[in-house]
Amino acid sequence: MSTARTGRKVHYAWIAAAVTFLTLLAAAGARATPGVIMLPIGNEFQWSRAKVSAIISVNIFLFGLIGPFAAALYQRFGLRKTMMAALALLSAGYGVSTVATQYWQFLLLWGFVVGAGSGLAATVLGAAVANRWFTERRGLVMGLLTASTATGQMVFLPALATVVTQQGWRGAPLVVAAATALVIPVVAWLMRDDPRDVGLRPYGESGPVTAAPAVSPVNPALRALQVLGEAARTRDFWLLAGSFFVCGASTNGLIGTHLIPAAFDCGIPEVRAAGLLAAMGLFDLVGTTASGWLSDRFNCRYLLFTYYGLRGLSLLLLPTALLGPTSGLGLFALFYGLDWIATVPPTVRLTGEVFGREKASIVFGWIGASHQVGAAFATYTAGAVRTSWGSYTPAFLAAGALCVIAAFLVLPIARLRPAVAPVPA
Predict the structure, then answer these.
(1) How many Cα atoms sit within 13 Å of 10 on the Cβ side?
(2) Strand (E) or helix (H) holding 402
(3) Letter string b/e over residues 371-410, b meaning 16 or more CB atoms within 10 A of that residue's CB
(4) Other C-beta atoms within 10 Å of 121: how many?
């Protein structure tokens, strides 16, 4: 008898996925906050774009670095405890930052505390839940969980921009601190670490329910490093990590952080620019969910080739759209939004195909770390380019070119090399 239904109307996997979606949505709102308050923070403390960008780049870098260790922590301490710790860090970091007045305080709170919390509640969490709870519909679930980032933007950005305009920048961190704190009791109440904790097998599997796997006694940090050592000896790991570096540079690092300031430079008000990002989040919700569905049915290499190529073209056209009529910017929002993080479901699936279910979450954590290294690099570099050149145009064009290169990098991933014929004696 299929365990998709065992006397329950809904398999508990969908409840676990819903709680994870809510957690990732709150964390996405937290990650979107710096882009809204970059300008008022800089104006109040007389800090340049490059100086403020440095704080955000530390946040993004740590967000990525934590990823593979977070995957090991899920195995060692369980999903529920780790998710609650992540939300607590986000709430505390943003809540305390409202009374900060020194640069080092923001660097500590936004860079390290919020960065660590974000890393524990990142895309690698979605990958861990999808791999652990689902055998069927895994690509679709990964698409939905990845789309939580877009939904978080759609929910939080317009509200945060309005709060900043009416009450000053300190109102936005308070909203995020409250939202993340409210999710903690939901996680404590409903989240479970493994299907076997509720007497089930992963969704789509049949057969008797086995005992839950024993907790690994290996230190989580050592486990993450061991898996990295094994993965780093393969070509596919570097192709996946390199393409995801470009993904992070062209999304979180560049557009997620700098689109609002770039639009402001072109005479577009902050609230309207935040609404543009929110609209992109709506389109991305559709695009990423569809990408998850497609990754269950089509060759993921070709999907990634299409996504990176189209993203590169849209970024090459962005400087023109910012200076042109409103319709051009709306077209960019639609085109880029559908592609924003559609790369995640096929990347997760390829990672699972190459490295297997047991190691997939940790390996994807390292690939995700590469994503955030790229995002941190672009966050700081774009701010420095704006400070030096007075324009974001060189940063947008460079990111577009990198995406086109990444489109060709992904084609050899997970291809089996033809066997070499033996040389006759």
Answers:
(1) 7
(2) helix 393-409
(3) bbbbbbbbbbbbbbbbeeeeebbebbebbbebbbebbebb
(4) 33
The tens digit of pLDDT for each residue in 207-264 reads 666 655 555 566 777 888 888 899 999 999 999 999 999 998 888 788 877 887 888 8
Sign of CA dihedral 213, 219, 221, 225: negative
Lowest mean pLDDT of 40-44, 76-80, 206-210, 240-244, name the range: 206-210
| b/e burial code for range 198-236 (CB count within 10 A of at least 16 → b) | bebbbbbeeeeeeeeeeeeeeebeebbbebbeebeeeeb
What's the chain's average pLDDT? 82
Lowest mean pLDDT among 83-92, 337-346, 393-402: 337-346
What distance in Å separates the CA atoms of residue 347 and residue 368, rounded to the nearest whole number?
10
The torsion angles phi and psi of 382, rounded to 5 degrees, stand at -65, -40
User: Quick one: CA torsion of 129, 134, 140, 142, rounded to 10 degrees?
Assistant: 20
Q: What is the DSSP string of 9-37?
A: SS-HHHHHHHHHHHHHHHHHHHHHHHHHH
For 84, how many CA atoms within 13 A lie in the half-sphere containing its CB? 14
Residue bearing the bigger pLDDT, 153 or 237: 237
- The most distant pair of C-alpha atoms in the chain lies apart, rounded to whole Å, by 83
Alpha-carbon span 91 to 173, nearest angstrom: 9
Instruction: Confirm if 23 and 86 have CB atoms less than 8 A apart.
Output: yes
One-letter-per-residue 3-state SS of 34-102: HHHHHHHHHHHHCCCHHHHHHHHHHHHHHHHHHHHHHHHHHHHHCHHHHHHHHHHHHHHHHHHHCCCCC
Q: What is the mean pLDDT of residues 384-403?
A: 89
Which run of H or of E encompasses 6?
Answer: none
Distance separating alpha carbons of residues 159 and 270, to the nearest angstrom? 12
Tell whether the model's pLDDT for residue 16 goes beyond 70: yes
List of residues 6+ apart from 424 with CB closer than 8 A: none
Query: What whole-number distance in Å separates Cα of residue 385 and Cα of residue 383?
Result: 5
Measured CA to CA in angstroms, residue 149 lies from 155, 158, 341, 367 at distances of 10, 15, 9, 18
CB contact set of 178 (below 8 Å; sequence gap of 6+): 91
Q: pLDDT class for 3, splitting at 50, 70, 90?
A: very low
Task: Taking residues 395-399, report their average pLDDT.
Answer: 91
Report how far residue 410's alpha carbon sits from residue 347's, in angstroms, rounded to the nearest whole number. Answer: 10
- Average pLDDT of span 320-328: 72
Mean pLDDT, residues 192-207 taken together:
82
